[in-house]
Amino acid sequence: MVRLVLVRHGESRWNVDDRYQGQADSGLTEVGRTQAEMVAEVLVDRYGAADLVLASDLPRAWDTAAPYLQRIGGTARADARLREIDVRDWVGRTRAEVAAAYPDEIAAFARGVDIPRGGGETYGELRERVWAALEEAAAATTGTVVAFTHGGPIRVATAAALAVPPPGERGFVPVRNCSLTVIEHNGPAGGHRLAVYNAPTAAGSRSTRVE
């Protein structure tokens, strides 16, 4: 059994503004940097030095990983497959702005249609790449994998681990900044277990449906 510990990045500037980020980046706030320090302490206390550390190559995830790596004296492997969903034309817009500009797309999404968000990716495409990255990581070790990633990837990974068919990820509450989600990965035979979902590690951490 391999333990997959998924960490959402700390609070970003566009999290505060309720703006879609996707694969763009607005940088961590000071609160977000404090959250990263706090989650690092929790990770070291609970899991010590992970056998493998992964991080999305987006700055907000990499900056969140930095305090943990400093504490364990380790390095992380960047994996672009752990990036947030590509929302393309929605990048930088608030949820209200997107709702006003794309009413048909938002209505379709509300009905459960897996639309390419902003002309970018569907959740199905996100799930395929994220789960492939995590399964590859699980096959490379027999211990603990810590992955610093984003809210959308954590939700689809949870759904994949539990074999919940798309769009079942919508049934999981949005993920808080610097929360922990832990999946016990039991190899190709499946039978994965969700040990922890969205457990906060920092006071005042945010959850949001804008990725």
From TrEMBL:
InterPro entries: His_Pase_superF_clade-1, His_PPase_superfam, PG/BPGM_mutase_AS, PGM_Phosphatase. SMART domains: PGAM (SM00855). Pfam families: His_Phos_1 (PF00300). CDD domains: HP_PGM_like. This is Phosphoglycerate mutase. It comes from Asanoa siamensis.
